[in-house]
Amino acid sequence: MTSDTGVPKAPPRKTKKAGKPKSPVRPGVVLRGRFELLEEIGRGGLSVVFKARDKVAADAGLADPHVALKIIFAGDAVEPDIVSLMHREARRLRDLVHPNIVRVYDMDVEDQLHFMVMEHLNGKTLSKAFRETPEHILDVRKVNRLVQDVAAALSFSHGRGIVHADLKPGNVFIERNGAVKLIDFNIAFPVARPMKVTEEDTIQILGRLGAVTPAYASPQRLNDAEPCEADDVFSLAVLTYMALSGQRPFGGKTSLEALKEEIAPEPIRGLHRRSWKAIENGLALDDASRTPSAAQFALEFTRQNVFSVANRLMAPLQR
């Protein structure tokens, strides 16, 4: 290719295409000059959770300087006053110190990224435990531990005026030593527009009073009533039913659909009638008829199971 003067033309300069901007949330990023993001360990509709290295803790010589950072995608969907509410609620959770509740250390913000600093746990969620277990059924001893630990956490939080409001397998964490911890207490906040995300093969609805996962929620929560203790008791009963049967109590129906269609949960085969009665009372669709507290639910459910195990241990040897 030549010009009119006979001088060869230079080939046209190739312009670099504008690359996709790097995400501000990725491994290697350091927030507030302190928390180095290492790897993504969880993701939801409005947030992502990273394992992070706390540089201050590392410099202080702590054996385990790792924390979990829950980074919330506020964006345009959340009003500024709602962001303030999120920070205020996080401060309430910071004071919720219990062996069966994940620690919340702080909530901070950098460049519109609002993040919660939490205890980093080693183990797996109950939803993963279900997937790894044949027929998704847990041993009754593990279910007893699950019910006792979750009920202890709920009783503690309820006593301080805090309702979990979105109890489900993904929000129950089983540590390597078998201890159970509740994670992801629902910070109730409205959103500027309706949003839906899929999670655990269910739909998580973000409504006027925060997130709710219909497969585990009471009919009152699905009617957008303000969360209360009875809703957590219902969700605990759903988890207990699932852990023992591998099924949801109303099949593919939500509790609200079950209420409208007058569907009762199918009794769990092989379960002692008193243990079943405890679960049935926890699953009462009418909250006035439901077991009044998580502690009462745990007592009624585990009492028969512990009694049965003790009887077997104390029975005379057959010769």
UniProtKB/TrEMBL annotation:
Gene3D superfamilies: Phosphorylase Kinase, domain 1, Transferase(Phosphotransferase) domain 1
UniProt biased composition (Basic residues): 11-20
Domain of life according to the entry: Bacteria
Keyword ATP-binding recorded: yes
Positions of region (Disordered): 1-27
Keyword check for Lyase: no
Domain (Protein kinase): residue spans on this chain: 35-302
One MF term in the entry's GO annotations: ATP binding
Keyword annotations: ATP-binding, Kinase, Nucleotide-binding, Serine/threonine-protein kinase, Transferase
SUPFAM superfamilies (UniProt xref): Protein kinase-like (PK-like)
InterPro entries, alphabetized: Kinase-like_dom_sf, Prot_kinase_dom, Ser/Thr_kinase_AS
Protein name: Serine/threonine protein kinase
